[in-house]
Design a protein that fits this description.
- This protein has a single domain, classed as Winged helix-like DNA-binding domain superfamily/Winged helix DNA-binding domain (Arc Repressor Mutant, subunit A, Orthogonal Bundle), CATH 1.10.10.10.
- Helix 2 packs across helix 3.
- A hairpin with a 2-residue loop joins strand 3 and strand 4.
- The protein has a two-stranded parallel ribbon with strand order 1-2.
- Helices cover 42% and strands 9% of the residues.
- The protein is globular and about 40 Å long.
- The chain is mainly alpha-helical.
- The chain binds a DNA duplex (13 and 13 nucleotides) through helix 1, helix 2, helix 3 and strand 2.
Length: 111
DNA sequence: AAGGTGACTAACA
DNA sequence: ATGTTAGCCACCT
């Protein structure tokens, strides 16, 4: 199975109201340092694979989107809708990874 | 078809 | 403490 396929699968498994960082997704998909590829896949494959793109943020918990189709404000809104607290730090949206972060092992144990 | 390019990160200077 | 660099490798052109 290809890396990209695993990434898509993992992202789709992120539960409602939880988030994961690019790095975590990459690591679980089998390549810890390929975080940026996860970003690529999100950027280009969100529509194609119908991904919950708003549930993926960077390792610091910030929204690191640079996409006009899916602006940070929208992502923040979607997350709030899911019950996630989104705070604002210096013009950047932030969510508590400790609190809302999620790892597949918690429920599936596989992947 | 081959190569440039990241919605990233952690490690250095 | 802030800025740069080097891994990473699938996707798009």
């Amino acid at each position: 199975m290809a890396f990209g396929e695993r990434v898509v699968r993992i992202i789709k498994e992120i539960p409602y109201g939880r988030v994961m960082s690019y790095g975590q997704v990459a690591a679980i998909a089998g390549t810890p340092r390929a975080a940026i590829i996860v970003g690529q896949i999100l950027k280009n494959g969100t529509i194609k694979y119908d991904l919950p793109w708003q549930r993926v943020i960077n390792s610091k918990g910030f929204i690191s989107i640079v996409n006009m189709q899916f602006p940070p404000e929208l992502q923040a809104e979607l997350l709030k809708t899911e019950g996630i607290e989104v705070k604002k730090f210096d013009g950047q949206f932030w969510v508590d990874l400790q609190k809302y972060g999620w790892l597949p092992e918690e429920i599936s144990g596989k992947i």
